[in-house]
Amino acid sequence: MTAIARITLLSMVLGLSACAVQRPEPAPLPPIPPSQPKPTPSTSPAPSKPNVPAKPAKPVPRTSASFAPPPGGNSHWDAKLGVYVLDDQTNTFYRQRTYYRWNNGWSRSVSPNGPWEDTDIHGVPSGLGRQFK
């Protein structure tokens, strides 16, 4: 055997033997239950709970993870309705390249300025249909 082959073989054997001598990590011990005295019934009134501050409301998302916002319009995503609500036009909504408008009945358009085509409740997203009847 040549010297290079011997050195290579010896390096491989030493490298692999280092893997064999590592000790496994010990198994974690189960958690120790806290030792608390058992409550006993008493005639005294229960201690009052400390005032817990209310959690702050989550901010309303401005966009949807599934639907793109309307082009060039100020709007916000309403998860309950499942559409974008246009901020500068009353009862006008947007989802998937279609604008929806409620004006004592539903109409839809490809532009926020019309022309508007009358439709029924089946032509609007389901959240809108439940909101306006």
Task: Give structural notes.
This protein has helices at residues 3-20, 126-131; strands spanning 75-78, 83-86, 92-95, 98-102, 106-109, 117-119. A six-stranded antiparallel β-sheet has the order 1-2-3-4-5-6, with no helix packed on it. The termini are far apart. With 133 residues, it is α+β, with helices and mostly antiparallel strands. Helix content is 18%, strand content 18%. The longest helix is centred in the N-terminal third of the chain and has 18 residues, at 3-20. It has two helices and six strands; from the N terminus they run H-E-E-E-E-E-E-H. The chain has a domain at 75-131. Residues 51-61 have a biased composition (Low complexity). Residues 23-78, 106-133 are annotated as: Disordered. Residues 25-50 have a biased composition (Pro residues). This is Lipoprotein. It comes from Pseudomonas gregormendelii.
Q: Can you summarize the main beta sheet?
A: 6 strands, antiparallel
Average pLDDT for all residues: 77
The radius of gyration over CA amounts to 34 Å
Which stretches are low in confidence, meaning pLDDT under 50 for 5 or more residues running?
A: none
